Amino acid sequence: AGGAVKPIGFSDRALRAKSTCDLGPEGPSRAKARHGAGHVESLGTAIADARFPRGPQALTRLAVLALVLVVLTSPGCKIFSPWQEDEYSRAKNSIEGYEDKEGNWIRPEGSRADKAMNSDVPKILRKIPGLGERKVDKELARAKLQEANGFYQAGTNAQGQERKELLRKAAASYIEAGKNWASSSLEQDAHYMAAESYFFAEDYPKAEDYYVKLIKEYPRTRYQDRVDQRRMEIGNYWLQFPDKFYNVNWTDKTRPWNDTQNHGKRVLEKMLLDSPTGRLADDATMDIANTEFKRENWTEALDRYRDLISVYTDSPHQFDAHFLGAKSALLAYQGPQYSSEPLEQADKLLKQMVRQFQKQSSERKEPIAEMLAEVQYRQAERLYEEATYRNNKQEYAAAIVYCDRILDNYPDTPYAQKAQEIIDNAEGKPSVPTPYMHWMTYVFPTRDKVTPLLKPTEEEAAERQSLITRNRPKSPSNPLDPTSGDSQVRTAGSVEPVKR
Predict the structure, then answer these.
(1) Cα–Cα nearest to 206, from 172, 248, 156
(2) Measured distance CA(461)–CA(471) in Å, rounded
(3) What is the 3-state secondary structure (H, E, C) of 344-357?
(4) DSSP 3-state of 432
(5) Mean of all residue pLDDT scores within the chain
(6) Residue ranges per domain, the chain?
C-alpha cells in the first residue's frame, strides 16, 4: 500500500472519495485488505486515461463537441433561446386563439388583444396594477349589470330630465360592469348598452365613443347592424350644423364641443372603415357626397359619387350618383386653361346614365340635354382657344388642324363659324412663320452635316404650299351642261370618228 502510484491529476481526498463510491460502504481500509493496492492503481489509471484523451481521438471528440455547441446556439434552436418566436408561430397563434385562465377559448381580436400580443412589458411586470389586466370579478360584474338594467328600465319609463339622469346612471353602471370582467360577452353587452343609454339620453358624443370602443374591442360583434344604424343617425344629425371650427359649444350635450359638421362627416367615414360592406354603407357614402356638394366642394363630391358608382353597383342611389356626379364635374371645371379631366368625367357619366337608366333619364330629359350641350360647348371652346393661340403665333397649319376638329365634331356650337373664319384667313399663308432676319442664316455656316444640293422644284414648293390651302366645296355640277366635266351631253366635237 505504501508503494502505490498516485494517479496524475487526482488528489488523495478525491481518490479516497472515488474509491469509497465505487467499492461500497466497506470503506477504504477494508477495500485495501480485500483487493490490495493493485486494484486502486489500475482504477486510477483508467479514470485518468478516460478524463484526458490524447491523440486523434481527442481531436475528433473536441470537433464533435464544438459542432454541438454551434447547433445549440444557432438562431433556429430554442434550447438556449426560448424567447424567440418565428413569424409562422405568431400567425398560427393569432388565428387559432388561446385558452384563458377561466378555461374559455378566446380568439384574439380587437385593440386590447393586439396590445397584449405586441406588448413589450414582461409578464412579471404585467401583474402590477395599471400595467397588466384588471382582475376578473364575475360576481361584481353581474351585480353591476343587474343594477344597470334596473336604471335602464326606470329611465325608459321616465320623462324629461329625470329620464336623462337615470339613463346616464345606467351607462355608468354598464361601464363599471364591463371593467370587472374584461374580454367577455358581458363586457360586449355592457359596451353596447352603455352606448344605447347615452344615445337615448341624447348625449351623442359619449354614445359615439362607446360605439367606437365596442367595434374596436369586438370587430365581429353581433350588434354591428344596430351600431351602424345609430352612428348613421348621429352623423346625419351633426351634418345639419355647418358651424365654423372656432364656434365653441358649451351647453348642448347633443353636439361635440366644436366643428359639428366635420365631426358628423368623420362619424360616417369611420362607419365606412369599420363596416365597408354593411347594409348602410352606400347610404353613408351618398350622405357624405351630398354634404360636399352642398358645401360646394365639387372635386370631393365627384370623388364620393364615383366611389358609390364603382363600389356599390346595386345601390338604389346609382342614378342620383350619376346625375349629381356629372353636375359636380361640370362645376369643378375651371376653364380652357386648366385640365380637361372634369369635362371627360362629365361626358362619361352622362352617356353612361342615358344608356343604363333610360326610364329615369327620360323623366329628366331637359337637364340632361342641357348638361350634354354644355359639355360640347366647353370642349369646342378648348379647341378654339388652342386654334386662336396657334393662329396668333402664325402657325397656320396647326391652327387649321384644330379648326377642322371643331367643324367635324362640334358643328352646332358658336365656335364652328369662328373656326371657319380662321381657316379662310389662313389660305395662301405659310404653314410656319418666317423667322426674323432669316437672311442671316446664309451668312453663318450651318450646323447641318448634309445640306441639300438642289433647291426645291416648283412642284415641291407647290406641294408644301398646298398643305395650308383648303379646297372649297365645289358646287354640284349640272349634268346637262356641255361645258361641265361630268356632263352627259355628247356634242359633235366630243364624238370620236368611227373607224371602219
Answers:
(1) 172
(2) 18
(3) HHHHHHHHHHHHHC
(4) coil
(5) 78
(6) 1-55, 383-445
Which three cell numbers mark 441? 442664316
Angle at CA of residue 238, ends 236 and 241, nearest 5°: 120
Residue 126 CB coordination number (10 Å): 12
Whole-angstrom distance, CA of residue 379 vs CA of residue 384: 9
Cβ atoms of 144 and 186 within 8 Å: the answer is: no
* CB 290, CB 313: distance < 8 Å: no
Instruction: Please answer whether residues 201 and 188 qualify as being in contact, where contact means their C-beta atoms are separated by less than 8 angstroms.
Output: no
Q: Are 227 and 221 in contact, with CB atoms under 8 Å apart?
A: yes
247-301: pLDDT as tens digits: 888 888 999 988 899 999 999 999 999 999 999 999 999 999 999 999 999 999 9
Tell me which residue of 286, 284, 290 sits closest to 268, measured CA to CA: 284
Distance CA 475, CA 484 (A): 11
- Cβ count within 10 A of residue 325: 27
Compute CA distances 342 → 214, 329, 369, 383, whole Å: 41, 5, 18, 16
Q: Where are the beta strands (DSSP E) in 70-155?
A: 98-99, 105-106
CB 208 within 8 A of CB 259: no
Instruction: Using a pLDDT cut of 90, give the percent of the chain over it.
Output: 52
Largest distance between two CA atoms of the chain: 166
**Do residues 270 and 212 touch, judged by C-beta distance below 8 A?**
yes
